[in-house]
Amino acid sequence: MTDDFIGAGWAFPLRTDSSGGIALVSKSREIEEAIRLVLGTAPGERPMRPEFGCRIHDEVFSGAGAGSAGRIAQHVRDALLRWEPRIEVTDVDVSVDAEDRSVLYIEITYTINTTNDRRNLVFPFYTIPEEAE
Predict the structure, then answer these.
(1) How far is CA 47 from the centre of its chain?
(2) Cα separation of 55 and 85, whole Å?
(3) HSE on the CB side for 110, CA within 13 Å?
(4) Strand boundaries in the chain, DSSP class E
(5) Closest by alpha carbon to 64, among 96, 40, 39, 93?
(6) What's the whole-model pTM score?
């Protein structure tokens, strides 16, 4: 198989290229942008495809504990398994920013199926900080 299986698509976020047309991406960049699209979309956000997206948005108010990190990792695995068949997720690691506990970094290690190319992507996820009592 070749990179033809990966294909090409519109850039995300939607933007124009130097000629004024819709910017396109291909190969591994297209997969990276597709992953970001899946993770950045909450289920129910798209009226014509209400199941599309990732449930990490359910964890916005959960804080930065180990329990919420585990749920976020599972939501990411589930969403990418369902919505991005061109990759195999190897690992999902959720860590907290050392200076801002409301920021979680979701590091996804994956392999592109057709090329056996191992890659990683870090997706920042912002939570609502817990209020001090």
Answers:
(1) 20
(2) 18
(3) 22
(4) 8-10, 24-26, 87-96, 103-112, 117-126
(5) 96
(6) 0.81
In one letter, which amino acid is 59? E
Q: Provide the 3-class DSSP secondary structure of residue 59.
A: helix
In the chain, the amino acid numbered 76 is V
73-132 residue pLDDT tens: 999 999 999 999 999 999 999 999 989 888 999 999 999 998 899 999 999 999 887 654
Token pair recorded at residue 24: 């396109």
Domains contained in the chain, CATH given: 3-126 (3.10.450.40)
Question: What CA–CA distance (Å, rounded) separates 74 from 91?
Answer: 10
State both tokens at 11.
Answer: 């850039």
Q: Give the pLDDT confidence score for residue 5 in this predicted structure.
A: 53
Tokens (6 digits) for 58: 């359910």
Classify residue 57 as left (phi > 0), alpha (psi -120 to 50) or beta.
alpha
- Total Cβ atoms within 10 A of residue 13: 10
